[in-house]
Each structure stands twice: as structure tokens, then as C-alpha cells.
Amino acid sequence: MTIENIVRKIVVPLTFIANTAYAQEAKVATPEQIVEVKKINNLAVTSRDNDTDWLHQEQLIDSGKVTVLIQPVEEKPGYCIVGLDGFPQKYNLPADERTKDGKLEKAESILNLAEKDPSKKFYFPCDLKAAPETPNPIPDPDAPLASTKKKSSDGKLNVGVGYLYVGTAKDETTGFNGNMHGGSINLTYQPKKKLPYLGIALSGYGNGSSTSQDIAVPAADGPLAGKLVMKGSDEYSLQTLGLGLGLIVGGEVATNENNTFGFGLEGHAGVMHDWVTRKFGESSAQYVNGNLVEGTNISNHSDKTDTQFLMYNQVGARFRFGDFCLTPTVGLRTNFSAAYPIGGLNLGYCPRQE
User: What does pTM read for this prediction?
Assistant: First the structure.
């Protein structure tokens, strides 16, 4: 037996054993399986180096010119290894023809960035029971791999409506407490996951108060003293109406693994315009022994409307449950001589970004 034959008998079996876990039963991954791998790694928090490596691998997958392989892990049901055929720690085209053989090697595997157990760092959850018995044909790497390329996520439009509380100056004459109530409509657009969303907020609000005071002044002198009485009333009213327009900037800062819950922060900045209308009315008449004296009726009315512009700022926390979100906000508005509170609660349709 020659030395070459001895080496072959030792090295070849060892190489076969080392590659069995990664090479046997490798199949072309389906688009759904590729999407699951992307979802896991895009939501994971990891080191800069790992994140950079995954970014390169994801760009190769999206190029449509690589073959993504997947195979179950022996004695680990429910787990699979996923890798790029012909790219052993290689992140640029073309593929390495020496390893582009339809078999999955360890150096070609994709790291699971969400897995904390070092012994399972290359394992992704999977279910291959429904996979065909016969291996799928390996496509030509030079042809676009349309069936395995995930369509990029389109931008999402979010719509919300809610309650708005607005504070303003009190008025002692009418007993107005300075509290106004209204509603808001929020429209935001998020172009892509992990990017901030932008939008506008439209609001309307108002409140009012009124009071009246009866007067009765008897004559103190003259022949009708004690008989002549002037009776009347003074009426005061105040009504405030306002409109607001603002800009919204926000973003989702955390989601759970299945993307069914998300937490985000947002800020609002804009202007408000108030119309404050004050009305005053007085009426009186003279009575003798309780009987109206004809021609003594007197009435006067006046009203005045003032306007003012105010700046406002709010911060909000958005809680997303599936495709719906609840956003409480608090802030202040000011005319630069006084500041008043503002707050709201908005319920919206916020479709998740994949």
C-alpha cells in the first residue's frame, strides 16, 4: 500500500464526516424560508462585525444571482442550517466554483444573529416536512433568481384619530375654567422599516362659558319712592374656538420577535390659531307697583372677537399591537407670554413593516 493510498483512506473519510452535517440533504431554500431567515437576523441585536457580515450576505441574496441552500440538522428536529452555495466567507460575486457544488459547507453557513447559545449559532427554526422528496434543481447562478428574491417592502401610510385636550387662559367674569376639548387627525408615512415616519396633525377644539346677573334698583327719592323699581339683567359669555396644524416625526425603536408588538417615540411641532369671542348684553325696564311702565324697556348688546397664534410642541409614545397603534401625547403651547398644557390620545391604523 502506497503512502498516497494511506493518506486517501484517512483524509477522505474524515472530510466526508466533517461535511456530512452541512452537505447531505441540502436543498434550495424556498422564498418563505429565506424570508424567515431575513426576519430573524434583521430584528436581532448583535455586534457591528456580525451585522456587517449579514448585510453583505443579504445583499448577495437580494442580487438574485446566488443559490440559498437549507438542510435539517441531524438529531436537532425543528432546526436547519442555511447558507450560500459557493460563498465560503466570501461576500462578493461571482461564486467560488470550487465550492459551488449544491452542498452546504460550514464556511458557507449564515450565522443566526438572534441565537445566544454558541452551540446553536448556525441553527435557524424550520420545518422541512412539507419539502419535496426529490432535490430541487440548482438554478443557474447567472440567471435572476426571481422565485427566491423577496420583494422589497413598500412604504406604509398610517391614519389615526383621537381626543385632544387644550389649555388656555381662564376668565373670571364668565367663570370659564380654561379647559378646551377637541379632536385630531394624524396622517403619517413610513417609507421603509427602520426609517422614521413623517406626517401631519390636524386638530380642532373649543369651549365656552356664560353667566348672567339680575339687577333691581328701587327709587329712593321723589313721589314714586318705594313704588318705582328698575329691573334688568347683565349677561356675559365667552367662546373660544381653535384650529391646529403640526408636523409629526417619529420611529419605532423596538419590536418583538414576531413583529406583533412595537414601541416607538414621536414628536409634534406646529401652530394653533384661537378665536376668542366675548359677548355682553344688558336689558332693563321700569316697574311701578310691579307693573311694567310702557316705553321704559332698554337693551344694549356688544361683542368682540380677538385672535391669537400659538406655537406648540408635544412628545408621544406609540404602542403598536399588530397593525393598530395607541399613542398618548403631552406637551405645551405658548403665545410667548404664557404657556398652557396640551395632550391627547390617538388610536390609529399602523400596518407593520416587514
Answer: 0.54
